[in-house]
Amino acid sequence: EKGGYEHFMLKEIFEQPKSILDTMRGRLLADEGIIKMAGIWDHLERLTNAERIIIIACGTSWHAGLIGEYLIEEFARVPVEVEYASEFRYRNPIISSKDVVIAISQSGETADTMAAIKLAKEKGAFVFGICNVVDSSISRYTDAGAYTHAGPEIGVASTKAFTAQLTILSLIAIKLGNHNGNLGKADFMRLITELEAIPKKVEDVLKTVDEAVKTIAKKFADATNFLYLGRGYNFPAALEGALKLKEISYIHAEGYPAAEMKHGPIALIDENMPIVIIAPKVGHYDKIVSNVQEIKARKGQVIAIINKGDTQVAAMADYIIEIPETSECFSPILASVPLQLLSYYIAVERGANVDQPRNLAKSVTVE
Ligand code: F6R
Predict the structure, then answer these.
(1) Using a 6 Å CB cutoff, which residues line ligand 1?
(2) GO molecular function of the protein, one example (predicted)?
């Protein structure tokens, strides 16, 4: 049932071209310039008239939520807050019937997320769910929703569910922006054409990065710490990369916005510190170039995720992993794939139980 792969996690990483496509299927009709989503369509006014959207989730789903915030604010210009479900539920949050809550959960069974949804509903908010497991508790309890069609995720570390969540959030943000007039026709068309090309680009990543990632994994399998850095949309991708490493390799890792390095973490950098930096040629690329310079001046070991054909970061980095170009808003999908593989191969090198990491469960139904 692992389809010839050694672990479910590896199988699920390699399934992503298909799981992303399945999540878009029937919803993204790029040729016709249409995004069709029943769950959104039926509640379009409620969503676009929201004074505020609050995204609640835990763990990897919370990281997807952070990227959702960037997407929705950029394209639909609706203010978004992202909260850990566990914090939200215990702090008497300000919430009213003018708010829309988007709850994200792979399993649809996470106790903290469920409790936060109940609280939001009591206060009159409209709750939209993004779940992967069909007919799960959260998917049944929410007012409306959209499933990620990633298929069953068995490995405890979430991989294909995460990229499916990013796909759904992209569709929602672009749809809302198109509907409320904040996203012009030309930009709308450009974005949906880009999004449609993502599954093929993920396939390209999977076909080309394996050797580079394995070499890096061998080199750093005994590291005790890692830093993950990214800017803009790739800051949450850095958080997610660090979480994957912690979960399955038991190596301490921290994700940071690259510009925050100078406010503290830079003190950690020496020749023994591996630093994964997500540096595609998007957004503030020139700033990322200076971040890499700062790290190299302190002899940190730079593992850079760059676009094919990049020369500036490539010239300074100790190791490079190349991904295809895409719009900044979709770049976390492509950058996440080698980060998943890196944590996987490091865990394998260390002989860790990849699919069943210690102390973790697939659905966290305890509070
Ligand atoms: C990460 C991971 C956890 C879950 C979190 C939320 O790989 O598996 O951090 O993301 O427990 O779970 P769901 O999405 O099922 O609510």
Answers:
(1) 58-61, 105-107, 110, 113, 156-158, 243, 247, 363-364
(2) carbohydrate derivative binding
Report which ligand 1 atom has the smallest distance to the Cα of 161. 14
Q: What is the pLDDT of residue 41?
A: 83
Do 137 and 108 form a contact (C-beta atoms < 8 A)? yes
Q: 15 vs 153, 160, 199, 266, 359, CA distance in Å?
A: 10, 7, 10, 37, 26
Which positions are catalytic? 362
ipTM of the complex: 0.98
108 CB neighbour count, 10 Å cutoff: 26
Q: Which comes out higher in pLDDT, residue 364 or 97?
A: 97
Confidence of residue 1 (pLDDT cuts 50, 70, 90): confident
What's the pLDDT at 40? 86
The size of the chain, in residues, is: 367
Q: How far apart are alpha carbons 274 and 304 in whole angstroms?
A: 10
What's the 3-state SS for 276-302? EEECCCCCCHHHHHHHHHHHHHCCCEE
Query: First-to-last CA distance in the chain?
Result: 32
By the 8 A CB rule, do 231 and 288 touch?
yes
What is the Cα–Cα distance from 115 to 10, expressed in whole angstroms?
Answer: 32
Question: What would the pLDDT profile of 16-63 be if each residue is shown by its tens digit?
Answer: 999 999 999 999 999 888 999 888 888 888 888 899 999 999 999 999
> How far, in Å, from the CA of 182 to the mean position of ligand 1?
32
CA–CA gap between residue 298 and residue 126 (Å, rounded): 50
Residue nearest to atom 11 of ligand 1 (CA): 59
